[in-house]
Amino acid sequence: MRSLYLKVSSRVYNYSVTTTTQTSKKYSFASSPEKRSTSELKSIQEYIPSAENFGSGMVFRKVIDMMMGCLGMSNRPTLPSPSETNESPEVDLLPAIKSPRIRLSDGRYLAYREVGVPKDQSNYRIIIVHGFGSSKEMNFLAPEEMLTALGIYILLYDRAGYGESDPNPRRSVKSEATDIEELADQLELGTKFYVMGVSLGCYPVWSCLKRLPHRLAGAALIVPMINYKWRTLPKDLVKDDYRKNLSKWIIWLCRHTPGLLHWWLTQKVFPSANVLDKNPAFFNSKDLESLGNTPGYQLFTQNGFQQRQVFDSIRRDCIVAFGKWDFEPMELTNPYPENETSVHIWQGFEDKVVPVKLQRYVSERLPWIRYHEVPGGGHMLVYDSAVCEAILRSLLLGEDPPQYRPN
Asked: Which CATH fold would you assign to the domain 94-407?
């Protein structure tokens, strides 16, 4: 059986910025970080515990690394972001848009890509919502024969500010659902359609379940992110979870020191600034094996973060996803009392990004959601062809594979 590769690649716009003080630089800060003394930063770094001595310290070390950068420059002015300087950078024109796009009611454009059988010949129409550092070019290893046999049409789109879609400076949990509904209406998907979210791309799906349940034929949340600000999460369940502090620091940095965060993600003075790229602190052995065997895998790198649109989109996305929502997912009532529509959560048992115990708690609070757990699975379930097939069969046909039932 051949698999259809829906390739994940963060489209990176490679434009350069020149200023009145420097040329041929990606960005010019008012005070160049390379000229700052690095001795105090290096001395502090010596006291940071290693991963071997800190349990899950590889992740926490990254937070301390960023804190270290703040402490090392605490007696100096905060580095401004490029948009905050008094200089007027000249930006080269972006590459021509190659993908089809729709124009939303607020004037923004969303780019999209279609996969599977032609829409007018389809039995099932699915919108896939990508996650952090991804795009409409994402990988979802769906068997091609299955798409054809069942008549599956898949619509992937660049969320606001990603890939070829315009940014949304007023992004919110609500706006994500609104974008999906407008996309479905303009592309004439019908009165009902399926929606699947991956990781950070699941908060738009939660928003659809809150605001558009009548439009959904079914929904699947694949390794959905957990927002530690949800007040219904028990304190004793998250008090020792290092991810809680990690998300708190990320949001603080995104809100209050975007220039410093941008510099840290793009600087080359200290190694390992890119904390995500195939880092064993985030990916288990199966994830790493899948990523190594899958063409086109790419998360945002230092070069990608240098693009201001990329950085700002990620920053806004994180603030919304991990900030305060206008509703509590675990307080949602079953919108489908007659079981006319099914909702699913798919979780890897060894996921290092989203802990399985929290996902189990969410599913227990929402018994109307069908919970599936992949033994040995990590955070990259969409890179496993067998899992992708099971996700589609459970969502579209109501199958319940016994190997993915939690113990």
From this structure: Rossmann fold (3.40.50)
